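ARCHIVE ENTRY
Sequence with per-residue tokens
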Amino acid sequence: MYQITAKGPREAIEPAWDALAWADPSPAGAVDAKEDGRHAWRLDAYAETAEEADACKAMILETSPSLNPVVEALEDRDWVTLSLEGLPPVEAGRFIVAGSHALAKSAPGKTPILIEAGPAFGTGHHGTTLGCLLGFEEVLKRARPQKVLDVGTGSGVLAIAAIKAGAKRAWGTEIDADSVRVANENAAKNHVANAFHTFETGGGMNTTIRGDGPYDLVFANILFRPLVGLAPTIAGLTAPGGHVILSGLLSHQEPLVREAYASRGLGLIHRVRKDGWSSLVFERMR
């Protein structure tokens, strides 16, 4: 495993991140970009082989020549799991998200969500997941969603939060088989497996999900381009008066996402910004 790191201004980091994230196929197995101090951003990419790491570096330099990417060989270990072990609990409104090692020590009065270290995205620490949970708090001030759809559910944390807040049923979607397995396992660990199930399916959803719509609440914590592309599908699956919570977009990408959903009868009612990421809460007109 190799880590490729580059630091610089946002206007240099974002195009490099976009190039790596959207290459098909991409030499990077995972890519992340975030603020790294005042007026500074950091790009981290991970590659399995030295050749792929060199290809990542070349793409970064081609896209943003001002950056100086550094390649570092990592010890052959499960870095995803190790990086999550020992993470502190995350508090987001009424919810607290943590692994079993920390959940037992969590704050009283909070709704616990057990998410162990693992490869599926969504421990609550990333600005997008945290933003969605805080956005959900805003929805709960206005409504009590009963049917929920979580597009790109990852660990299942958002759907699990919805059920623990009173939703009767939630469906999750994932394009990754391992994430499907992890989300369903997390549903069992949180004692909500009777109300939450994740399917392996793409943006077109499946017959079960389409047939069970419309939904009172739709989460979609994915990426900017799929968010825009899925706007017709998500809007069509949202009940009148229902809510949509979107994340996975950088703050400067908000206008295009807002436009895509506003044109389909969804009005922005709340916004959360964390670590350069935006989470947007929409309400569908009745």
Remarks:
- The domain at 120-284 is CATH 3.40.50.150 (Rossmann fold).
- The chain has a mean pLDDT of 86.
